[in-house]
From TrEMBL:
<dbReference type="InterPro" id="IPR036282">
    <property type="entry name" value="Glutathione-S-Trfase_C_sf"/>
</dbReference>
<dbReference type="GO" id="GO:0016740">
    <property type="term" value="F:transferase activity"/>
</dbReference>
<feature type="domain" description="GST N-terminal">
    <location>
        <begin position="2"/>
        <end position="81"/>
    </location>
</feature>
<protein>
    <submittedName>
        <fullName>Glutathione S-transferase family protein</fullName>
    </submittedName>
</protein>
<keyword id="KW-0808">Transferase</keyword>
<dbReference type="InterPro" id="IPR004045">
    <property type="entry name" value="Glutathione_S-Trfase_N"/>
</dbReference>
<dbReference type="InterPro" id="IPR036249">
    <property type="entry name" value="Thioredoxin-like_sf"/>
</dbReference>
<dbReference type="Pfam" id="PF13417">
    <property type="entry name" value="GST_N_3"/>
</dbReference>
<dbReference type="Pfam" id="PF13410">
    <property type="entry name" value="GST_C_2"/>
</dbReference>
Length: 311
């Protein structure tokens, strides 16, 4: 049985989302710190070029995107459920909206000049310049667009008022009654905003939201210990990818198992990963890759939010 290995860095909102999922399920895991900007040589050895954070590794299987990681954690431990029975569609759809629209608004608000000064003011100027340059290219070639700051400020009260109303009217303690992925997906963007005194009032001005957010953050991060990137690569090299799922799908665009393809995110961070398509399902795509350091690995992507092309 292979350990859960999370490749992440502390200030990543989607890493916090995944850490909270691990805490919600009270799972044990290993923590590998990765750079917040490219290059990421140890991670690239495992993923083949996928640049987003976080990435979950289980032996020689590499899971990209927090939405797919959520599904893998459900398979790892079914209760408590991130996608509760009878609410899976509502929860997954809400989480997708929160991870896209709410997150993009939060990014715009967090990276306004006053917030940047508060968040990064103690960094050496050359490091801050490198970080900003890296993030400035993140949306190149993708379908997502940056939300202008004035638009984010204009629309944020509507988002928060709706969230507060849902919490006040819902009979349970969470967005859909019982705790689920919906709560965690919404919480990580608000956690991001709480990172500076400039943007924290955008959350704290809504008492029901602030109380609910504290409740979600109390899930914690589970039990974890540190691991080096080199050790994680060695684990992948010495492992064999898990058996492929059985519920295969005839791809609607004609891509076939055994074909050399490239898979990339379609919103932002669209760096492509090339390999042999070994599984095509309704939710998941799997590539087989050979890497000089990591050996044979299977890299898993969700179908939603990703594109596949012949390479």
């Amino acid at each position: 049985m292979h350990e859960l290995i999370l490749h992440h860095y502390p200030t990543s909102p989607f890493a916090e989302k995944t850490r909270l999922m691990l805490g919600f399920k009270q799972l044990s895991w290993r923590s590998v710190m990765i750079p917040p900007i490219m290059p990421k040589p140890d991670l690239t050895a495992l993923t083949g070029g996928y640049r987003k954070t976080p990435v979950l590794q289980i032996g020689a299987d590499i899971y990209c995107d927090s939405a797919l990681i959520a599904q893998r954690l459900e398979a790892e431990k079914s209760t408590p459920a991130l996608l509760p029975e009878g609410q899976a569609f509502n929860v997954a759809s809400f989480a997708q909206w929160a991870d896209s629209q709410v997150f993009l608004h939060a990014v715009s608000l967090v990276f306004q000049p006053e917030s940047v000064a508060a968040r990064f003011g103690k960094l050496p100027p050359e490091i801050l310049k490198t970080f900003i340059a890296d993030r400035s290219t993140l949306f190149n070639g993708g379908l997502a667009t940056r939300v202008p700051l004035e638009v984010a400020k204009h629309q944020w009260p509507t988002i928060m008022a709706r969230l507060q109303q849902q919490l006040e009217r819902e009979p349970g303690d969470f967005l859909f009654g019982e705790a689920s992925l919906a709560d965690i997906a919404m919480a990580h963007s608000l956690w991001f905003l709480r990172g500076t005194p400039v943007t924290a009032p955008l959350v704290d001005a809504y008492p029901a939201v602030a109380t609910w957010l504290a409740r979600v953050l109390d899930f914690g991060h589970g039990s974890f210990s540190d691991m080096s990137g080199e050790e994680a690569i060695s684990i992948a090299r010495d492992a064999t990818p898990a058996a492929l799922p059985s519920a295969a799908l005839a791809d609607p665009n004609g891509f076939a198992v055994g074909q050399q393809v490239a898979i990339s995110a379609i919103d932002y961070g669209v760096d492509a990963v090339e390999g042999e398509l070994v599984f095509c399902g309704s939710e998941e795509l799997i590539l087989r890759r050979e890497d000089p350091r990591a050996g044979t690995v299977h890299v898993h992507f969700p179908r939603m939010g990703f594109a596949i092309k012949a390479s």
